[in-house]
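Exercise (ungraded).
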Amino acid sequence: MASTIRVRAISSGEITEVQVLIQHPMDSGFVKDAKGEIIPPHFIQRLTFEYDGRNVFVADWGTAVSKDPYVKFSFRGGNKGDDLKISWADNKGETDATTAKIQ
Amino acid sequence: MNMTQPTVRISILSLALALMSATSAPAASSKTDFNIAYAAAEAAHKEAGRLRNQWTVTAEALANAKRAADKGDFDGAVASAKEAEALAKASIFQATSEKEAWKNLEIR
Amino acid sequence: MTPTVAADALDPVADAKAFRNYFVAKFPHVKPEDFVNGPYSMNEDMRRQWEEKEQFPPYEFSLDMGKEMFAKAFNNGKSYADCFPNQGIGIRQNYPYFDAKEGKVITLELALNRCREANGEPPFSYVGDEMAALTAYMAYTSRGKPFDIKIPDDPRALEAYQNGKRYFYTRRGQLNFSCATCHVQNPGERMRAEILAPAFGILNAMPIYRSEWGGMGTISRRLTTCNSQIRGVPLEPQAEEYRDLEYYLSYVSNGLPISGPGSRP
């Protein structure tokens, strides 16, 4: 299955800027479907970015984050060609992970 | 003397209430009244449909009218039906007048 | 004093020129080709946020889905490429067109469903995700190409054009708005929290990923929801009025580049 994570990490010497777009329904559990039934909550709870063995960005999410979330952040360090590992886990126990090369 | 006074007061009160309701209540709408009002509203809404210009609020008022009638609230049902008819007639007026009025907005 | 109406002197060329001039004059600091960016050409702050997002656009998933769908063969072995000129690549700017044989306006959405039905496949909903993904991909292959809508020398085509124009300026719904009320009289102004887009180039970014929808939506979806938002009961998607409207709006935006699929708030 194709990865749900699109990532671009660009290093400009000291700082690496990371952008990520994740495909996920992020259902809050408050919305009803066409039949009037609640669509059960299905959302990413934890999003982790790992570089050189340490977490450079960790997000604990809840139901307030919308569908197909987009994240942009920067961290000190990161060299061109190095790996950046991204992984997420949701409330249903589903997960996905990918590794991107810093450009 | 103190024991009889409340009884007298209550009797007068209930008599007053009975009189009030007897003189102030209007004739309640019947199912027939509703059917007539609804048919008129529906016909106007259909005419607006023929002109390809129905309003969502007309449809809502018609639905409200039906719902009220189903519950036996014919007063409410007739009121909603009359509102629907007014809205439908307004939408017909809009479609008719816009046949020429649209030109006033055109960029030239 | 009523304005002199050139009653039956139908002149689409003059219309298009006047349409363009109106917007260029109203927004002298906007480059003509920038009008296709809708609210982002009207508001600096929104533009900045949009440019950031465009580095990683939210419509990517739908676009990828559209590309896959377009390439996949039907059960009978044929594919969308067999229904369209140039295999369906880089042709979006030619739609809608007036079909002389049938005497009606054919939009891209209509053409796609006809292609499906001609090959034994069930049609897609005009307001659903699949049609949005397909038209997103086809728009993408035409990015940068200018709208090139033709009105043949045929009274029926002129009538369709005129119908579309009339629809555009006609007030409707309980709120008594016409398309022009928002997109000609008030582009750049706010409608509640939204910045209104100018009508000039308004279809060039379609289909659009709307944050409000949390997904990609077709022209049909936008037209029907616009109707209900002003409290008018929408017509059926791809009704004659909508196709004619799309014909008119696309024609008066001739020359502006296709920028779809787009993203909007």
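Further reading is listed at the end of the chapter. For now, observe: Chain B has a mean pLDDT of 86. The two ends of chain B are 91 Å apart (CA to CA).
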